[in-house]
Amino acid sequence: MLYILDSANVEEIRRCMEYFPIDGVTTNPTIISREKRNFLDLIKELRETIGPERMLHIQATAYTAEGMVEEALRLKEIVGGEFYIKIPVSDEGIKATMMLKKLDVKVTETAIFTQPQALLAAKAGADFVAPYVNRLDNIVSDGVSVVSDIVSMFSTHNIESKVLAASFKNVEQVHSVILKGGHAVTITPELCERMLYHPLTVSAISDFDQDWRKVYGDKRILDLI
Length: 225
Ligand code: G3P
Known about the structure:
By secondary structure, the protein is α/β, with parallel strands linked by helices. It has helices at 10-19, 29-35, 39-50, 65-79, 91-102, 115-124, 133-138, 143-156, 171-179, 189-196, 199-216, 221-224, and strands at residues 2-6, 24-26, 55-59, 83-88, 106-112, 128-131, 162-165, 184-187.
Protein backbone atom coordinates (compact mmCIF):
# COMPACT_ATOMS: atom_id res chain seq x y z
CA MET A 1 0.00 0.00 0.00
CA LEU A 2 1.41 3.32 -1.05
CA TYR A 3 0.84 6.76 0.48
CA ILE A 4 1.35 9.45 -2.10
CA LEU A 5 1.07 13.21 -1.62
CA ASP A 6 -1.23 15.13 -3.94
CA SER A 7 0.70 18.39 -3.88
CA ALA A 8 3.30 20.47 -5.69
CA ASN A 9 4.10 22.62 -2.70
CA VAL A 10 7.72 21.94 -1.87
CA GLU A 11 7.50 23.12 1.75
CA GLU A 12 4.44 20.97 2.47
CA ILE A 13 6.05 17.98 0.80
CA ARG A 14 9.26 18.44 2.82
CA ARG A 15 7.33 18.56 6.08
CA CYS A 16 5.24 15.49 5.24
CA MET A 17 8.28 13.52 4.15
CA GLU A 18 9.98 14.30 7.44
CA TYR A 19 7.07 13.06 9.53
CA PHE A 20 5.25 10.47 7.41
CA PRO A 21 6.18 7.42 5.29
CA ILE A 22 5.54 8.97 1.89
CA ASP A 23 6.09 6.98 -1.31
CA GLY A 24 5.83 9.77 -3.84
CA VAL A 25 4.07 12.83 -5.18
CA THR A 26 1.23 13.25 -7.66
CA THR A 27 0.45 16.49 -9.42
CA ASN A 28 -2.05 17.68 -11.98
CA PRO A 29 -2.41 20.96 -13.90
CA THR A 30 -4.59 22.43 -11.12
CA ILE A 31 -2.11 21.52 -8.38
CA ILE A 32 0.87 22.82 -10.42
CA SER A 33 -0.91 26.09 -11.34
CA ARG A 34 -1.69 26.76 -7.69
CA GLU A 35 2.03 27.25 -7.03
CA LYS A 36 2.30 30.05 -9.66
CA ARG A 37 5.96 29.15 -10.27
CA ASN A 38 8.20 28.57 -13.26
CA PHE A 39 7.14 25.08 -14.36
CA LEU A 40 10.60 23.75 -15.18
CA ASP A 41 12.13 24.99 -11.90
CA LEU A 42 9.22 23.53 -9.97
CA ILE A 43 9.36 20.01 -11.40
CA LYS A 44 13.15 19.90 -10.95
CA GLU A 45 12.77 21.01 -7.34
CA LEU A 46 10.06 18.42 -6.75
CA ARG A 47 12.43 15.69 -7.92
CA GLU A 48 15.32 17.05 -5.84
CA THR A 49 13.04 17.19 -2.80
CA ILE A 50 11.71 13.64 -2.98
CA GLY A 51 14.82 11.98 -4.44
CA PRO A 52 15.03 9.58 -7.38
CA GLU A 53 13.37 6.58 -5.71
CA ARG A 54 10.03 8.10 -4.80
CA MET A 55 7.39 8.29 -7.50
CA LEU A 56 6.77 11.60 -9.24
CA HIS A 57 3.57 11.80 -11.31
CA ILE A 58 3.20 14.74 -13.69
CA GLN A 59 0.19 15.16 -15.96
CA ALA A 60 0.38 15.72 -19.70
CA THR A 61 -1.24 18.88 -21.04
CA ALA A 62 -1.22 18.20 -24.82
CA TYR A 63 -4.50 17.54 -26.64
CA THR A 64 -3.29 14.77 -28.94
CA ALA A 65 -1.78 11.36 -28.22
CA GLU A 66 1.37 12.29 -30.12
CA GLY A 67 1.70 15.50 -28.10
CA MET A 68 1.22 13.64 -24.81
CA VAL A 69 3.91 11.17 -25.79
CA GLU A 70 6.35 13.98 -26.63
CA GLU A 71 5.63 15.67 -23.31
CA ALA A 72 6.11 12.39 -21.45
CA LEU A 73 9.47 11.70 -23.07
CA ARG A 74 10.77 15.22 -22.32
CA LEU A 75 9.51 15.11 -18.74
CA LYS A 76 11.06 11.70 -18.18
CA GLU A 77 14.39 13.03 -19.43
CA ILE A 78 14.19 16.11 -17.20
CA VAL A 79 13.00 14.62 -13.90
CA GLY A 80 14.35 11.07 -14.27
CA GLY A 81 13.98 8.59 -11.39
CA GLU A 82 10.64 6.93 -10.70
CA PHE A 83 8.63 8.98 -13.16
CA TYR A 84 4.99 8.46 -14.18
CA ILE A 85 3.20 10.45 -16.82
CA LYS A 86 -0.43 11.09 -15.90
CA ILE A 87 -2.71 10.71 -18.88
CA PRO A 88 -6.40 11.68 -18.72
CA VAL A 89 -8.68 8.82 -19.78
CA SER A 90 -9.92 10.04 -23.18
CA ASP A 91 -9.63 8.49 -26.65
CA GLU A 92 -6.37 10.42 -27.24
CA GLY A 93 -5.28 9.41 -23.75
CA ILE A 94 -5.82 5.70 -24.34
CA LYS A 95 -3.99 5.96 -27.65
CA ALA A 96 -1.12 7.76 -25.90
CA THR A 97 -1.02 5.08 -23.20
CA MET A 98 -0.60 2.31 -25.79
CA MET A 99 2.18 4.30 -27.47
CA LEU A 100 3.91 5.07 -24.18
CA LYS A 101 3.97 1.44 -23.13
CA LYS A 102 5.96 0.59 -26.25
CA LEU A 103 8.40 3.34 -25.28
CA ASP A 104 8.75 1.99 -21.75
CA VAL A 105 7.25 5.04 -20.05
CA LYS A 106 5.19 4.41 -16.93
CA VAL A 107 1.62 5.70 -17.09
CA THR A 108 -0.99 6.68 -14.53
CA GLU A 109 -4.37 6.99 -16.21
CA THR A 110 -6.24 9.74 -14.43
CA ALA A 111 -9.70 11.33 -14.11
CA ILE A 112 -11.29 7.88 -13.90
CA PHE A 113 -14.95 7.82 -12.86
CA THR A 114 -16.14 4.40 -14.03
CA GLN A 115 -15.10 0.77 -13.96
CA PRO A 116 -15.09 0.42 -17.79
CA GLN A 117 -12.76 3.43 -18.09
CA ALA A 118 -10.38 1.76 -15.64
CA LEU A 119 -10.46 -1.52 -17.56
CA LEU A 120 -9.76 0.19 -20.89
CA ALA A 121 -6.86 2.10 -19.37
CA ALA A 122 -5.44 -1.06 -17.83
CA LYS A 123 -5.77 -2.99 -21.09
CA ALA A 124 -3.99 -0.14 -22.86
CA GLY A 125 -1.08 -0.62 -20.44
CA ALA A 126 -1.57 1.87 -17.61
CA ASP A 127 0.55 1.02 -14.57
CA PHE A 128 -1.89 2.84 -12.30
CA VAL A 129 -5.49 3.93 -12.75
CA ALA A 130 -6.68 6.85 -10.64
CA PRO A 131 -10.40 6.85 -9.76
CA TYR A 132 -11.69 10.10 -8.20
CA VAL A 133 -13.42 9.08 -4.98
CA ASN A 134 -14.71 12.37 -3.55
CA ARG A 135 -15.82 13.73 -6.92
CA LEU A 136 -17.90 10.56 -7.33
CA ASP A 137 -19.38 10.99 -3.85
CA ASN A 138 -20.24 14.58 -4.75
CA ILE A 139 -22.53 13.42 -7.55
CA VAL A 140 -24.33 10.93 -5.31
CA SER A 141 -22.34 8.07 -6.74
CA ASP A 142 -20.21 5.90 -4.45
CA GLY A 143 -16.48 6.44 -4.92
CA VAL A 144 -15.45 3.61 -2.59
CA SER A 145 -17.65 1.10 -4.46
CA VAL A 146 -16.17 2.13 -7.78
CA VAL A 147 -12.66 1.60 -6.38
CA SER A 148 -13.71 -1.72 -4.89
CA ASP A 149 -15.12 -2.91 -8.24
CA ILE A 150 -11.94 -1.92 -10.06
CA VAL A 151 -9.77 -3.74 -7.52
CA SER A 152 -11.79 -6.96 -7.85
CA MET A 153 -12.03 -6.66 -11.63
CA PHE A 154 -8.22 -6.44 -11.86
CA SER A 155 -7.80 -9.33 -9.46
CA THR A 156 -10.39 -11.56 -11.21
CA HIS A 157 -8.78 -11.04 -14.60
CA ASN A 158 -5.16 -11.10 -13.41
CA ILE A 159 -4.57 -7.56 -14.58
CA GLU A 160 -1.31 -6.10 -13.36
CA SER A 161 -2.42 -2.45 -13.24
CA LYS A 162 -2.78 -1.00 -9.76
CA VAL A 163 -5.43 1.29 -8.34
CA LEU A 164 -4.17 4.67 -7.16
CA ALA A 165 -7.28 6.15 -5.61
CA ALA A 166 -7.44 9.95 -5.70
CA SER A 167 -9.66 12.89 -4.78
CA PHE A 168 -10.26 12.48 -1.06
CA LYS A 169 -11.83 14.91 1.35
CA ASN A 170 -11.85 12.91 4.55
CA VAL A 171 -10.12 10.12 6.45
CA GLU A 172 -13.12 7.79 6.21
CA GLN A 173 -12.92 7.75 2.40
CA VAL A 174 -9.19 6.92 2.52
CA HIS A 175 -9.66 4.21 5.12
CA SER A 176 -12.55 2.60 3.21
CA VAL A 177 -10.60 2.52 -0.04
CA ILE A 178 -7.66 0.83 1.68
CA LEU A 179 -10.00 -1.77 3.25
CA LYS A 180 -11.33 -2.53 -0.22
CA GLY A 181 -7.82 -3.33 -1.42
CA GLY A 182 -6.83 -0.07 -3.13
CA HIS A 183 -3.11 -0.36 -3.86
CA ALA A 184 -2.27 3.31 -3.37
CA VAL A 185 -3.92 6.53 -2.23
CA THR A 186 -2.94 10.07 -3.05
CA ILE A 187 -3.88 12.58 -0.37
CA THR A 188 -3.30 16.24 0.40
CA PRO A 189 -0.74 17.14 3.08
CA GLU A 190 -3.65 18.40 5.22
CA LEU A 191 -5.42 15.05 5.03
CA CYS A 192 -2.15 13.30 5.76
CA GLU A 193 -1.92 15.20 9.08
CA ARG A 194 -5.60 14.48 9.81
CA MET A 195 -5.05 10.72 9.40
CA LEU A 196 -2.78 10.83 12.43
CA TYR A 197 -4.84 13.05 14.70
CA HIS A 198 -7.12 11.76 17.43
CA PRO A 199 -8.03 13.79 20.55
CA LEU A 200 -7.80 10.70 22.78
CA THR A 201 -4.24 10.11 21.58
CA VAL A 202 -3.33 13.72 22.36
CA SER A 203 -4.86 13.36 25.80
CA ALA A 204 -3.18 9.99 26.48
CA ILE A 205 0.24 11.41 25.60
CA SER A 206 -0.39 14.41 27.84
CA ASP A 207 -1.44 12.15 30.75
CA PHE A 208 1.73 10.08 30.41
CA ASP A 209 3.82 13.23 30.56
CA GLN A 210 2.03 14.65 33.58
CA ASP A 211 2.34 11.39 35.55
CA TRP A 212 6.03 11.15 34.72
CA ARG A 213 6.67 14.74 35.77
CA LYS A 214 5.07 14.12 39.19
CA VAL A 215 7.98 11.82 40.01
CA TYR A 216 10.87 12.76 37.69
CA GLY A 217 10.16 16.42 36.93
CA ASP A 218 11.92 17.73 33.82
CA LYS A 219 14.28 14.78 33.62
CA ARG A 220 13.99 12.52 30.60
CA ILE A 221 15.11 8.87 30.36
CA LEU A 222 18.62 9.74 29.25
CA ASP A 223 19.06 11.93 32.34
CA LEU A 224 18.32 8.89 34.53
CA ILE A 225 20.35 6.07 33.04
O1 G3P B 1 -4.89 13.98 -8.28
C1 G3P B 1 -6.01 14.75 -8.46
C2 G3P B 1 -7.18 14.29 -7.68
O2 G3P B 1 -6.74 13.89 -6.43
C3 G3P B 1 -8.28 15.31 -7.64
O3 G3P B 1 -8.57 15.75 -6.35
O4 G3P B 1 -9.60 17.18 -4.67
O5 G3P B 1 -9.41 18.00 -7.01
O6 G3P B 1 -11.03 16.20 -6.45
P1 G3P B 1 -9.73 16.82 -6.11
